[in-house]
Amino acid sequence: MPAADHPSATLPVAVIDIGSNSIKVLVAQRKPGGRIRSLDSHALDVRISAGISLKPPRLGEDGMRSGVAAVQALIDRSREFNPAAIHVVATSAVRDAVNGADFRSRIKSATGIDVRVLSGEEEANLIGRGLLTDPAVGSFKDFYLFDLGGGSLECLSFRARKVTQAVSLPLGCVRLTEICVADPGLSFSSSDHAAVVSRVKSTLLASTFTFDLGPDADALFIGGTITATRFLIASATGIPPEAAPTSLTVAAIEEVFRRIAPMPLEERKRVPALPAARADVLPTALATVLTLAEVGRIGKFHTSSHNLRWGIVDETLPIIQAQRVV
Questions:
Q1: In terms of C-beta density within 10 A (0-12 exposed, 13-18 middle, 19 or more buried), how is residue 324 classed?
Q2: 3-state secondary structure 179-232
Q3: Which of 65, 101, 221, 321 has most Cβ atoms within 10 angstroms of its Cβ?
């Protein structure tokens, strides 16, 4: 059993994250000394968020059916590790959809597990908590953190490693593609680009989030968009995925955007290292990242794999440990 590798470690917990673009699981435990150790991590490309830009936002029937099946599959996978608890959480797409309660009810009927719907503020703060479990960012003190999903963009700032701002904005790449892109099957046109840039700028400037750490502040970006960009850069230069760069200059991201945006969708789907399920929204996502960098005067983004799921594990493990003591 995986937990036996560290007899004094906590029992593992599993977190299943129902995102707008994919549904993911993390099974992890706390090692002696306090660090969190991942036992398993897996993602299924299930876009439940198609239709999230409708008025009112609504989850489609196909997406809900696929989503329930994916959650069940990941629950079954996580049970191989005998977790002390399994948590299922949902974010922007389910939070915003008028039929989100119906989707949660279907998951409860199929699995027996309640879905916790995170508010935008909870989501942002748990992403920040997850990032701070990453030893690789231990030297960061004052910095920004951004996480782009299908339905929303989470923006955080930290001073002395404490969250000072946490804002969730409706700038997810699926949402913006539905709103701003005339035909995702075609190349990403100049008018598509202008519409995305305008939407991102106006939303950022109207929000409460401010870039108040100075022009030399560190910035981190996490999520599928930046991971895909890292792998695209590695593939183009003959580097294996495991050696993909963990820091990306804005110039390098711009180069990927210039290469990907003119391609029609079917050509994008054939690009090595680009997940076919993300090909339709990647130009919008890259345009969002670049606009964010422009507004915030950011020249480089660092990356991390520690995210929302790590934050929920970190939140949950002290509770599990207390229950064992009792």
A1: exposed
A2: HHCCCCCCCCCHHHHHHHHHHHHHHHHHCCCCCCCCCCCEEEEECHHHHHHHHH
A3: 221
Distance CA 3, CA 272 (A): 37
Query: What structural domains and CATH numbers belong to the chain?
Result: 2-121+308-325 (3.30.420.40), 135-302 (3.30.420.150)
- The mean pLDDT value for 137-162 works out to 94
Of 162, 31, 172, which is closest to residue 92 (Cα–Cα)? 172
From its phi and psi, is residue 112 left (phi > 0), alpha (psi between -120 and 50) or beta?
A: left
In the DSSP assignment, the letter for residue 117 is E
Give the integer Cα–Cα distance in Å for 36 and 313: 8
Element (DSSP H or E) covering residue 321: helix 308-325
Could you identify the residue written with the tokens 């590790």? 81
Q: What is the pLDDT of residues 244-269, one digit of tens each?
A: 889 999 999 999 999 999 999 999 99
Cβ-contact 150, 21 below 8 angstroms: yes
Q: In the sheet that 36-44 helps form, which strands lie side by side, from edge to edge?
A: 36-44, 23-30, 13-18, 85-90, 115-117
The pTM of the full predicted model, rounded to 2 decimals, is: 0.88
Assess whether the previous peptide bond of 318 is cis (omega < 30° from 0).
no
The type of residue at 119 is S
Question: Crossing angle, helix 224-236 and helix 282-296, to 10 degrees?
Answer: 100
